[in-house]
Amino acid sequence: MPVLRVPYTDPLPLPRIIPPSAKSTDGAIAALLEFLAPSLPRPSVPQSSISSKLATCAKGAEHHGKTLLLTGAGISVASGLADYRGANGTYTLNKTYRPIYFNEFCENHEARKRYWARSFLGWTTLDRARPNKAHRACGELGRLGVVGHVITQNVDSFHPAAHSHLPTTELHGYLRSLVCLTCRNEYPRRSFQEHLARLNPTWAAFLEEMLASGALDTENPDERRKKGLKANPDGDVHVPDAPYTTFRYPACPVCLATPPPKPGGGVLKMHADADGAWDTSSEGGVLKPAVIMFGESIPAATKVAAEEAVDDARRILVVGSSLATYSAWRLVKRAKERQMPIGILNMGGARGEESFFADVQEGNTGREALRISENAEQVLPEIVRLLRERKRS
Ligand SMILES: [Zn+2]
């Protein structure tokens, strides 16, 4: 069954901290160490001839002991990107914020103009942002043999950038590329941005002006307004003399050069203006960011890769996610059904978390269940430091 990406914006209750000793930061770090301890590789012992024959099996067993990380927007906040739901998140600050839905993007040229105009202004913030200490700590946990895989809901590509040695499944795709809805070719977002600038010179000049004013350094609409970024009541930026209805975006160059075949015979009509902007008379060649939009199904291969990562792990640790999207929540539910210990490190509540912790045993130190409300950027590097110390001794 396909899994749709849908937003979930109801308020969430504050978490019950587990174990209760984890209410302080020191207590939370101690409990998280307890949670991860069973994933620490055992010191190697001299192998007998029988055990060396079983080396292949042992490799598998080692892999099965690892912790799976499932990360969300909270881990990228320290990189300067907004958490949708957090204290300064998009949903809380900008009440008019409404994400575009997949069908709308595919079917509606006006919706695409609006999307690309917003994206044109927003891209620079993402392009300049870098992975932070928490992403790097995830990579170090991989090097220590504690973590074997990362699943992220984030589309900023910070995980693959920070730890290419540790596999990452990007559950909701990635903004670094565009994909053609017709031929499925992918293109880098950065050169697309340059093309958007050439197609929309008034917007490009406005972007330069706003970057210089610092208006794009914040997601807070009030602060933006003070710095000269005017928005209409729908949250669309008002660019003098250039309404977004005149915004132009490029067509897929491959579809333009070689129009793809039509299902019923012949080829798709493809038209662009002299600058390469997509023309409404075209029957294909629409470029979409390579993210899974709301209302879009996660590709089967991604869904399977994420499920396999859950099945291959011994325990799961959620970092910086309120599990607001069903696609992420169901992975934790799957882990629970497989009786894996579940840990959540997230500031504020997580969707349906009571059901994950209903059966916590008295005397749990964090090893069998963990729920802490701390800053990942502080806690994870400290965990890496302590685990390294433990490994040395
Ligand atoms: Zn194409």
From TrEMBL:
Keywords of the record: Metal-binding, NAD, Transferase, Zinc
UniProt domain Deacetylase sirtuin-type: residue ranges: 47-390
Keyword Transferase annotated: yes
Active site positions: H172
GO molecular function: metal ion binding; NAD+ binding; transferase activity
Residues annotated for Zn(2+) binding in this entry: C180, C183, C252, C255
SUPFAM superfamilies in the cross-refs: DHS-like NAD/FAD-binding domain (SSF52467)
Superkingdom assignment: Eukaryota
Alphabetized InterPro entries for the sequence: DHS-like_NAD/FAD-binding_dom, Sirtuin, Sirtuin_cat_small_dom_sf, Ssirtuin_cat_dom
Annotated stretches, region: Disordered: 216-237
Similarity field: Belongs to the sirtuin family. Class I subfamily.
UniProt name for this protein: DHS-like NAD/FAD-binding domain-containing protein
